[in-house]
Amino acid sequence: MNTDEANRVVGRPLNRVDGYLKVTGGARYAAEFPVAKMTYGVTIQSGIAKGKIAQIDTKAAEQVPGVLAVITHLNAPKASGEEGGGRKLQLLQDNIVLYSGQHIGIVVADTFERAMHAASLVQVHYDEEKPTINMQENLDKAYLPAGKIPRNEPPDKSHGDVTQGLAAAAVRIEQTYTTPIENHNPMEPHATTAVWQGDQLLLYDATQGIFQAQNKVAGALGIPPANVRTMSYYVGGGFGCKGSAWSHVVLAAMAAQKVNRPVKLVLGRRQMYGPVGFRPATIQQVSLGATREGKLTAIRHAGISQTSTFDEFIEPVAKTARMIYACPHIETSHHLVRLDTGTPTFMRAPGEASGSFALESAMDELAYALNIDPIELRLRNYAEIDPDKKLPWSSKSLRECYRVAAQRFGWHKRNPKPRSMRDGNYLIGWGMATATYPTNRSPASAIAQIMADGTAVVRSGSQDIGTGTYTVMTQVAAEALGLPVDKIRFELGDTQMPETPLSGGSQTAASVGSAVHLAGNEARNKLLQLAVADRASPLYGANVEDVIAQDGSLFLKDKSSQTETYARILARHGLKMIEARADAKPGEEKQKYSMHSFGTQFAEVCVNPDSGEVRVTRWVGSFGVGRILNAKTARSQLIGGIVYGIGMALMEHTVTDPNWGRVVNADLAEYHVPVNADIPMIDVLFVNENDPYVNPLGVKGIGEIGITGVAGAIANAVYHATGKRIRDLPITLDKLL
Ligand code: MOS
Fold first, then answer.
1. What pLDDT, on the 0 to 100 scale, is given for residue 561?
2. Which mutation among 235, 313, 348 tests ligand 1's pocket best, with the greatest number of atoms within 8 A of CB?
3. b/e for 364-387, b at 16 or more Cβ within 10 A?
4. Do domains 4-27+442-585 and 351-440+591-735 have the same CATH topology?
5. pLDDT at position 79, please?
């Protein structure tokens, strides 16, 4: 037995350590800090999508009692929207309007209501130009971007000769799949509280990246990052929209400087549709070629997505096609069309979520064309190595995932013939798809301190966007430090803590977890070295390998009577604490192995043949995602991803007015997301996976894989139920009638 085994707490379904604070309102979000002399910012947004502000009249607004400032391009301090990394921002530097909903001013008042009222009095006259809004009508302007897709990969790539592969195929599927704009709707909207203390800026921000926000705001304002401290202790959901610091964050800081008081700026739900990103619409052409036996001879996946006129975001829909199935000829590309909208951004599994809808639908179409079971078709093309990088997988349990999910679902009872399964008058459909998401990791640091009272404090910048970072890091720290979880205080969410990456790309557990693990180990080792070198210790002279740290004590492996507590060791040495810092980063293993999570999605739908209404009635998902840090939060993450995917498949659709470029359903009444009544029992199965290569903890990340494959599985189930292949999301009843 080693220390880790003695303290085995990683993996247990520990309740959220912040749960009590959250349900009692004790957890403070970005807009909830009681700052003295607070003022309230409300932005004015452009009503047109393209043109210039000819005139902006702020007089009436300025005369509203309590108004402290009305800032527009006419009086805004200098700032740069291009500096500091991330997205390009609009910071009131000129009169140019680039999209509907662009912030063109900010009103600051002593109450929120007065600021709202004043903002409504600002009169704007525009020199309007006709905006380009519709991607479908502007495909002639599609271009191959110079930028990269994630992991520094080119937007277009090919292996072999797809034209030849398709020519050699006995069966071909060539179809176009489309997905609409979708918007993030975290429960907590974007919110920033900006407080200046001399030349130091404090920002309480709802963000997935405190360090990214720090750099962006510092860059925009032209001040050193060290002068900006960003704090984000609790975040009410991110999903990608809070992965970039958007214009309003800088505007809050600018406004606070202008009025020389703290400014709180919270975006209203409607303001979340336009200036803070969205999942772009995509048009995806998929061509598959296969032999009669179901061996793929060619995969072509060509994606077109929208971006803004002033910035580039590539939705990497075809990335998965490069690695998911074994195939000699694979060609993938990503093109962009510039439109007069805000810049799109990451939204849960950007690329994989939309891309897997197209590819997994096409695979199902191929299975029908070949008359082969869709699981069997996927097994016949099982990629034993990464077909793109030609590297072995660090681990892959997909075969086992198909097996356990099919068994749990009862797949063998499926009659593959469309419209063959019924429940009374209702049509029943069963569909499945493969899920996958890359295993990401970035450098991260942490500090662990064993305190004189035998407790420990562990700190690491980072963010908990609702996923359970506080909880799982407490478990990782407890295990490494040899302490019970209730003796650990894990702190995060402050740029004064050790640096960590964005909570995006499903990388927090892998990156921050590695740092916490190493820092905890290092602190424990320091303590241990101190004890064995100390004549006064019962462990004096022992081999460090023979000493176990457990429950806040050290003891000798086979003689548990030879023991002493951490507190006693520190007291005897007159130490307030023992501290260790770890800077963890990925090593060579990335060059040797291809690292991905894999899983499967199995859906049952029930379709009303008269109304076309689709209900999801059963779900089984299986996942090989490395080591599970917490069985409860992990399951919750995957269920959340699946729910998100059900929304994507059946409901979510941002509708933009083609003439005005304005989102017409910018609220939760008209933008539909699933509610409890839309969601069946979701069965999540974990396949035991031990991956020694991905990172010291063996975790692969679970924030995003849950949504991948979901829309494809549902589209496939809908086809099975109805005989109608819907290649355009969302699958609403009008498309089935
Ligand atoms: Mo996630 S879309 O990488 O925040």
1. 83
2. 348
3. bbbbbebebbbbebbebbebeebb
4. yes
5. 98
Instruction: List 36's β-bridge partners, or say none.
Output: none
What's the 86 CA to ligand 1 centre distance in angstroms?
14
The pLDDT tens digits for 4-16 are 777 789 999 999 9
pLDDT of amino acid 1: 56
Q: What is the mean pLDDT of residues 266-277?
A: 97
Give 168 Cα–ligand 1 centroid separation in angstroms: 39
SS3 244: coil
Residue 263 host element (H or E): strand 263-266
End-to-end CA separation in angstroms for the chain: 63
Ligand 1 pocket member 346 (CB < 6 A): yes
In the CATH scheme, what architecture does the domain 4-27+442-585 have? 2-Layer Sandwich (3.30)
How far does residue 347's CA lie from ligand 1's centre (Å)? 6
* Cis amide prior to 150 (ω within 30 degrees): no
> CB burial class (10 A; 0-12, 13-18, 19+) of residue 467?
buried
Do 510 and 697 contact (CB within 8 A), yes or no? yes
Which of 111, 119, 272 is closest to 190 using CA atoms?
Answer: 272
Distance separating alpha carbons of residues 653 and 258, to the nearest angstrom: 39
Compute CA distances 593 → 79, 326, 391, 589, whole Å: 44, 17, 6, 6
633/114 Cα distance (integer angstroms): 42
Which ligand 1 atom sits nearest the alpha carbon of residue 349?
A: 2
* Any ligand 1 atom below 6 A from CB of 240: yes
Confidence of residue 458 (pLDDT cuts 50, 70, 90): very high
255-265 confidence digits (pLDDT tens): 999 999 999 99
Record the pTM: 0.97
Atom of ligand 1 nearest to the CA of 243: 4
Mutation choice for ligand 1 from 315, 346, 597, 702, CB with most ligand atoms inside 8 A: 346
Cβ of 661 less than 6 Å from ligand 1: no
What architecture (CATH level 2) is domain 351-440+591-735?
2-Layer Sandwich (3.30)
Residues in the chain: 737
Confidence of residue 646 (pLDDT cuts 50, 70, 90): very high
DSSP-assigned states of every residue in 275-330: TT--BPPEEEEEEEEE-TT--EEEEEEEEEEEEESS------TTTGGGTSB--S-E
pLDDT of 205 over the 80 cut: yes
At residue 560, the pLDDT reads 78
> 704 an active-site residue?
yes
Q: Which atom of ligand 1 is nearest to the CA of 506?
A: 3
Catalytic residue among 352, 522, 689, 704: 704
Residue 36 confidence class, pLDDT cut points 50, 70, 90 = very high
Q: How far is the CA of 245 from the centre of ligand 1 (A)?
A: 13
In DSSP terms, which residues pair with 457 in a beta bridge? 449, 489
Q: How far is the CA of 53 from the centre of ligand 1 (A)?
A: 34
Band of residue 558 on the pLDDT scale cut at 50, 70, 90: confident
CA of 238, closest atom in ligand 1: 4
Nearest-CA residue for atom 4 of ligand 1 = 240
- The predicted model gives 400-427 an average pLDDT of 98
Q: How confident is the model at residue 8, as a pLDDT?
A: 86
Mean pLDDT throughout 347-366?
A: 98
**Taking the domains of the chain in order of start, what are their residue ranges?**
4-27+442-585, 351-440+591-735
